[in-house]
Amino acid sequence: MTRALIDHLWQSTLFAGAIWSITLLMRRNSAAVRHSLWLLASCKFLVPFSALYSIGAAAGLPTPVEFQPDFFGAALSAATPVISPTQILVVAQAPGSSLLAPLLLCVWLAVAALLAARWLRGWWQAAAISRAARPAPGTLPDVRVTEAHIEPSVARVWHPVVLLPAALLRRLSPPQLDAVLAHEREHIARRDNLTAHLHRLVEALFWFHPLVWFIGRQLREERERACDEAVLEHGHDPAIYAAGILEVCRHCADAHSRHAVAALSGDLTQRIGAILACRPPQSLGFIKAFLLSACTLAVASIPLVAGAMDDAARRREILAFHVDALRDASIEVGVSRADAGVATQVIARGNEVLVRNSSLRELVAMAYGVAPYQVAGAGIWLDDLRYDVRAIVPQDVSEPDEFDPTALRGVVNRLLGSRFDLEIHVNQQCQEPCGRAAAPLGAPARH
C-alpha cells in the first residue's frame, strides 16, 4: 500500500511538472486553456495510473485461438528460475512493529477531516445565503441580492446563482455592474464552482503535498484571467471594468474568501494590469491543439493499453502452462448422468480438470473457442449423448479460476481420435493429434 502511494505521488508530481512546462510555453495563449491543463494536473491526483492499468487489464485483449502449445510450453520452461542445491535459504526475522505508520495515518486523517469540515461549512454557508437571497430587480433570474456582507460571487454547483451584496448596488455604475455581473456569469458558464470543489477534494486528500497547493493557486489565477478575457471579448470597456473591480475591492476586501469563486479572487494587481493592457490572447492554432490532444490521449491510453497487453501476456502464460500439463494428463470419459437441462460446466481444481454434461459438438466448440453451430458434422450422436470428461494432470492446476477451455484442445483431439475415431479439420487441415494417430487415452473409458 505504501509503495503504491509513493508511486502514485511521484507519477502525479512528474505529470504536474510536465503540465507546468506546457503552460509556460502557452503564456500568450488563452487562460482558459491553461486552466484546463492545471485541472488535468489536479485530476491526476485522483486517478492513479495503476487504476487505468487495472481497467485495461480488466478489459484485456482476447487470447488468440491459434497458438502453438509446444512453443509456449518451451518458452515457459525457459523462463522458470532454477535454484542451485548449494544455495541456502535464510528466513529473515520479522521486524518489530512500529508506531510510525499508525501515527502518520492519524495525523493525515485529522488534517484531512479539518480541511473537509472547513470545505463543507463554506459550502453550507453559501447555500444558506443563496436560499435567503432575493432576485435582483432588472437583472437575469440567476442574479440574487443578499444583505450578507460578502463579495460578488457564485454559489451552488447545480443551478448556480450570482450573489450580489445589496450595499454594492449603490456604489457601482450600471456599466460597472454589468461588467462585474458578466464576470460572475462567465464563472457559471465555465462551471468553475464544480472544478473548484473538485480541487478542494484533492487538497483535503493530499494536503501534505506542496504541489497540490501550488496547483490550486494556479487554478484560481487562470480561472479569473479566463473570465476577465471573456468579459473584454464580449465588448466591455477595460477602464470601466477595472474601476468596477476596484470599487468592489474597496467595499468587500474584508469579506473576501480565498476559496470562493468570486470577483476578488486571484492576483488583483496582475488582473487589473492585464485588463487595462487589453491584449487579446493568441489563438491556440492547429499544431498546438493537435499536440495537446495527442498528449492527453496518450497519457490516458498508454496505461490502459499496457494493462491490457500485460494481462493478455499473463493469460497466455497460464494457458501455455495448462496446455503443457494436459499433454501428459490421464483422461477418463463416461456418459453423463446429469439431469436434462443442466448446463455444461468446466471445473479446474487440484490436479484435475472436469468437463460435465457436454455433447461432443459443445466439447469441440469449447476447445476451439467457437460457437457450437460453427462445428460442422453430421450424426445425432454429436448432440444427443452427453459426456463427463475428467483429465488428471501430474501437478495441481495453476490459477484454476482462470482456466481457459481452449487448453483442452489437445485432450479433445486425443479423445475424439482414440474413443470415437473422429478427426477435427480446420481449414482442411487435420488438427494434432490427428485421428487414429492420436495417443491412446491414459485410462480406459467408463460407461
Short description:
The protein is α+β, with helices and mostly antiparallel strands. It has helices at 2-25, 31-44, 49-59, 69-78, 100-132, 174-190, 192-205, 210-233, 238-252, 268-277, 285-327, 360-368, 409-420, and strands spanning 134-135, 143-146, 153-155, 161-165, 330-335, 345-349, 352-358, 387-392, 425-426, 429-430.
Structure commentary:
This protein is an alpha+beta fold and 447 residues long. Among the domains are: 100-275, no CATH class; 329-437, no CATH class. The chain contains 13 helices and ten strands. The chain has helices at residues 2-25, 31-44, 49-59, 69-78, 100-132, 174-190, 192-205, 210-233, 238-252, 268-277, 285-327, 360-368, 409-420, and strands at 134-135, 143-146, 153-155, 161-165, 330-335, 345-349, 352-358, 387-392, 425-426, 429-430. Helix 1 (2-25) packs antiparallel against helix 2 (31-44) and helix 12 runs antiparallel to helix 13. It is elongated. The model is unreliable at 64-95 and 443-447 (pLDDT under 50).
Architecture blueprint of SSEs:
Blueprint: H1 2-25, H2 31-44, H3 49-59, H4 69-78, H5 100-132, E1 134-135, E2 143-146, E3 153-155, E4 161-165, H6 174-190, H7 192-205, H8 210-233, H9 238-252, H10 268-277, H11 285-327, E5 330-335, E6 345-349, E7 352-358, H12 360-368, E8 387-392, H13 409-420, E9 425-426, E10 429-430
Parallel strand pairs: 2-4
Antiparallel strand pairs: 1-2, 3-4, 5-8, 6-7, 7-8, 9-10
